[in-house]
Amino acid sequence: MDLRLDRLTVELGGRRILRELSLDVPSGRVVGLVGPNGSGKSTALRCVYRALRPAGGAVWLGDTELSALRLRDAARSVAAVAQENGSGLDFTVAEMVALGRTPHLRGNQPLGERDRELCADAMARMDVAHLAGRGVLTLSGGERQRVLVARALAQEPSVLVLDEPTNHLDVHHQLGLLGLLRRTGLTVLVVLHDLNLAAAACDRLGVLSGGALVTVGSPREVLTTDLVREVFGVAASVVEHPETGVPQLLYTLPETLEAKTR
Ligand SMILES: Nc1ncnc2c1ncn2[C@@H]1O[C@H](COP(=O)(O)OP(=O)(O)OP(=O)(O)O)[C@@H](O)[C@H]1O
């Protein structure tokens, strides 16, 4: 299912946080949202998982406007791995993942066999099955993050939005998660800080700065030395990955540049 952010404008605390942000995430594609701290990435995602109502514009799922759906119906289509995520609740891992099935169950209906299979599959895919009986509050940051992704997968959505999902993950699990996102066939909008991971994992990248979209395109089109300097204020060389051809950035510490020019 296509996801479309259409001229989203958000105002918070008397400030305009997002300005007419438009971004298409075609069905089955992985689109990354990158940008400096405070540029509005999480705010954009919060509009998609309905934690925030935009002052202007709309989010579209296919040809349905998201705000026209009941929350429960929206939750059958869109799953979120947010930064604020209810992980302060003292559930076991299995219970937390089972919460992903809530939009598909009626009232207090218990999990059926298929629900349990989906939860077990999601836990296996995120490598947390061995933690099923543990309390989520006892987990490490990375383990907890993987549980939250498992909960989102168990939700069986068509659209998955994730806010910095690789935070806390070791490199093995970072690559595992991003590889999985590509394999799921879901429509994915993901906020990432690591531009090299974003280039490797995403079909397209949208770059936000000051609440506005600076550019959108393939990683090769977007990740240029000029853009990285202008938007992030850092010096970087762009090289091609020798095996995949994906652009990768080699950063230079400011002190190194200063020393070179001295
Ligand atoms: N409730 C609020 N009231 C006022 N300002 C807010 C509120 N929520 C967020 N902001 C501001 O909106 C701006 C965008 O925040 P947002 O969390 O979307 O940025 P971000 O790009 O996700 O940043 P980061 O990379 O640091 O996670 C920031 O300047 C933030 O301080």
Automatic annotation (TrEMBL):
Residue stretches making up the ABC transporter domain: 3-235
Keywords: ATP-binding, Nucleotide-binding, Transport
CDD domains linked to this entry: ABC_Iron-Siderophores_B12_Hemin
A GO term, aspect molecular function: ATP binding
Organism superkingdom: Bacteria
Xref: SMART domains: AAA (SM00382)
Pfam families named in the record: ABC_tran
InterPro entries (alphabetical): AAA+_ATPase, ABC_transporter-like_ATP-bd, ABC_transporter-like_CS, P-loop_NTPase
Protein name: ABC transporter ATP-binding protein
Biological classification of the source: Bacteria, Bacillati, Actinomycetota, Actinomycetes, Pseudonocardiales
